[in-house]
Amino acid sequence: MALIVQKFGGTSVGTVERIQQVAEKVKKFRENGDDIVVVVSAMSGETNRLIDLAKQITDNQPVARELDVMISTGEQVTIALLAMALIKRGVEAVSYTGNQVRILTDNAHTKARILQIDDTRIRADLAAGKVVVVAGFQGVDEQGNITTLGRGGSDTTGVALAAALKADECQIYTDVDGVYTTDPRVVPRAQRLEKITFEEMLEMASLGSKVLQIRSVEFAGKYNVPLRVLHSFQEGPGTLITLDEEESMEQPIISGIAFNRDEAKLTIRGVPDVPGIAFKILGPVSGANIEVDMIVQNVAHDNTTDFTFTVHRNDYQNALQVLEKTASELGAREVIGDTNIAKVSIVGVGMRSHAGVASRMFEALAKETINIQMISTSEIKVSVVIEEKYLELAVRALHTAFELDAPAKRTE
Amino acid sequence: MALIVQKFGGTSVGTVERIQQVAEKVKKFRENGDDIVVVVSAMSGETNRLIDLAKQITDNQPVARELDVMISTGEQVTIALLAMALIKRGVEAVSYTGNQVRILTDNAHTKARILQIDDTRIRADLAAGKVVVVAGFQGVDEQGNITTLGRGGSDTTGVALAAALKADECQIYTDVDGVYTTDPRVVPRAQRLEKITFEEMLEMASLGSKVLQIRSVEFAGKYNVPLRVLHSFQEGPGTLITLDEEESMEQPIISGIAFNRDEAKLTIRGVPDVPGIAFKILGPVSGANIEVDMIVQNVAHDNTTDFTFTVHRNDYQNALQVLEKTASELGAREVIGDTNIAKVSIVGVGMRSHAGVASRMFEALAKETINIQMISTSEIKVSVVIEEKYLELAVRALHTAFELDAPAKRTE
């Protein structure tokens, strides 16, 4: 008998029919003998409806404390509906708001952080054979004010509850059936991963794979809560995200290929190659609240050097202005910008124990005559910047080169 | 500086515009230097929308505990919106759910009763100059379960808070500008009462005058909370409901004329005039869960008597069946039913100190040749049953006879 925390998002509980389906699913687990805690979000659309009301009342400036009082009602409705749907099916169930559980948070309204969870009530209910339905996304501060955790907060609630209860697994139900080796829209032979580590998942997520919120993966990693991503309305084992790196002897070197088109590249050419030049260039950029991702400084030539970095495309125009000002101050030769780039990354903990992974990546790209513009590496990731038009080609080539392709599909 | 509890119902907070109007009104009171606690209901329609969802999920059998979790969100949204609207106007305000105040109730979900109110938090906020906005209709039981008080519960919350805080007045805002001497649709010269006692108000309410919920009037009387009925969106002093009977020397004998068409009359004729006969007749009626209002037993004649009583019209058919069974068991002569009746009552604490009020009533009706079918009296009320078609005539005649008519209206 396992203790499982199951989290269903707004789309999974978006209609009366879907709530009934979720109840059926929970019932099956319960009948298998598992202890179940369910975390739910507001029905899809409800949070936005409430925020709209608040904006109408306040000319777009709702007070954060009162906004939390209001939007927390979205999840409160869902927990009651799901508990009713379970009880109607003969499954003993009880619902709790964040305050009722006592999910204690700090008082940063609309983006609070969980400090502590009181598990007394939930444990007593589980011991009495009940399914416990908990409102995601919300908590209460020391003074008893209602707080919310911000976007993706229901995932965090699920993971935090699983950690507090030392649950065997935290299952995140979503609209995909797991984490894939890469985006199946780009590589039809992409495969669902049985397993991936927290570290890899974080790299995949930060590189644009949107299955899970980064914060909840970090949280799960920190407390070593096994996390499983599953499809809400299809059967299947999903993808398990754990600490464990070593269980399988046949673990692939690379777990997945991530990519994004969200970045732009800026180059400042012919700057004096003196100590502190990197700070002189990047200081004003971060001073303008622009985040820099990859950075490359060329080998100096005639006492001058070139300096290249990437920013989010939304920040491109601002960054260009800042950089042109810096260039004229430093007497640089020129500033060049390029938005037609893409970033492709290979991610895998297997890299740690396998040499030559990067060169195998470069070889695969060279075979397709794709020019690499920038390179950046971490312990479990190699990223390259290439011309955007080669993105799909690069991802497919790498997917094949690292033996991630699924066997040719049977016609069913 | 007074401490005032103001209660606004679902219609008064039914739209964003109306919530803004309520905020304006509260702001004016606050600027006058009064301490204000506002109790609000759910936006009109919201509670029914939620109940519909629950019914859809459960095939019309929602679990009471979970229903309370859900429908209590209606008021929770309104308190946040009103607090936001006040803050936007520069009025310091804070919202509380029933649980946050700690309005402690029993655990009778969907019809809970208030046991105790913790005033610590509210007093601290008032002392800090804040308007406190409290969710009506809801509370929390000893175990921390969310409860609701049933229909009209927001009035009860208002009165209970006023009692706990020893407020100077509890103002109930509604869609009428006060309590009238009788229904102005029947008597255009009906007048708004400046003042009425709790007892009178209870009689008026139980006789069909729907301005206030009986339960909240009882509560206000018990704790001697001055209650004022006012119009939400019109200026005016409304009607004050208090204990005080004696303040004015010129208090009228009769405060109002109440009436209803909700009853039906049943007569069993020729029953043996023996001890216990009333119980033999009415026992089976109340055994069928039918409430009996007025009862008259005729003087016996030839050792038999006639027995007449009234029930709600909805219970008429059931009562008739029960009575016919009883009649055949008792060997009664016949059973007669009549649904074309109306009840008219004069209500006033002035009756206590004035003799001859009843005969003045009968005289007024006799002048209009209206036949009285039944009479029932209490300390502050005389009720008569008459043929329904004379109802309006009777009410107008009594309104004039007891000098309740307003001066002839000026053309404005």
- Unreliable spans of chain A are none
Mean pLDDT, all residues of chain A: 92
Tell me the distance between the termini of chain A.
36 Å
Beta-strand percentage range of chain A = 25-35%
Q: Of all protein chain pairs, which has the greatest interface, and how many residues does each chain bring to it?
A: A-B, 38 and 38 residues
The main β sheet of chain A shows up as: 8 strands, mixed
Major sheet: arrangement of strands of chain A: 3-6-2-1-9-11-12-10
- Structural category of chain A is alpha/beta
What is the CA-atom radius of gyration of chain A, in angstroms? 24 Å
* Number of beta-strand segments of chain A: 20
Instruction: Determine the oligomeric state from the structure.
Output: homodimer
Number of helices of chain A: 12
Q: Helicity of chain A, in percent?
A: 25-40%
From the spread of the alpha carbons, the general shape of chain A counts as globular
Description:
Two copies of one chain form a homodimer. By secondary structure, the first copy, chain A, is an alpha/beta fold. Chain A has helices at 16-31, 46-58, 64-88, 98-101, 120-127, 153-165, 198-206, 214-222, 277-287, 316-330, 357-367, 391-401, and strands at residues 3-8, 35-40, 93-96, 103-105, 114-117, 131-135, 138-140, 146-148, 169-174, 195-197, 227-231, 239-242, 256-260, 263-272, 292-297, 304-312, 334-338, 341-347, 374-378, 381-387. An eight-stranded mixed sheet of chain A has the order 3-6-2-1-9-11-12-10, with helices on both faces. Chain A is globular and about 80 Å long. Chain A starts with a strand and ends in an 11-residue tail after the last helix. The mean pLDDT of chain A is 92. The interface between A and B is large, with 38 and 38 residues.
